[in-house]
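pls design
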């Protein structure tokens, strides 16, 4: 029996790769701008190169470029990933893998946060991998209930509409909610 070769859609790969590069850059800038908060001796050491890089990262973090670009890059990544869902052979298996990885991420980040007495606020309760797991499993379930593309499209538009109504782009980070005063999440 001849094995069929899977054809890749280069435009999806390009946009996904671009969005991943931009998200990695955004996370790197977050880490670099957070150095003064994470290390109590940051000012004592006063390494000019590290201080310079940290200030550049803080400038990016507070910039209009991030305010506009971040939601666009996340939306591109989510849209391309959602389109790619249709090319998966086993979305149940894929969703369960996402879920296992998401739970591992939560466990590790919450343990590190707890080990630092809450000083290192890095606990991830619901991130992009969690959202992929939820979206993949929900779509798999909805497709099992009623395998109708129009129905799935309407459900997707409804979820997007809820996100717009609740202003998904204004979700506060833990550090901005007052939760940072808690000693530990775990």
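designed seq:
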């Amino acid at each position: 029996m001849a094995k069929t070769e899977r054809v890749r859609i280069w435009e999806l790969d390009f946009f996904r790769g671009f969005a991943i590069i931009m998200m990695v850059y955004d996370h790197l800038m977050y880490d670099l701008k957070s150095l003064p908060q994470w290390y109590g001796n940051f000012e004592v050491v006063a390494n000019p190169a590290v201080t310079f890089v940290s200030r550049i990262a803080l400038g990016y973090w507070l910039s209009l470029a991030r305010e506009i670009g971040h939601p666009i890059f996340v939306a591109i990544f989510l849209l391309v990933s959602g389109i790619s869902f249709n090319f998966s052979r086993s979305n149940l298996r894929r969703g369960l893998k996402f879920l296992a990885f998401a739970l591992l991420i939560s466990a590790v980040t919450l343990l590190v946060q707890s080990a630092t007495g809450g000083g290192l606020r890095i606990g991830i309760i619901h991130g992009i991998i969690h959202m992929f797991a939820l979206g993949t499993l929900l779509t798999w379930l909805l497709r099992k209930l009623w395998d109708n593309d129009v129905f799935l499209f309407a459900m997707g538009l409804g979820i997007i509409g809820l996100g717009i109504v609740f202003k998904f782009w204004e979700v506060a980070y833990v550090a901005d909610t007052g939760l940072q005063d808690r000693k530990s999440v775990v």
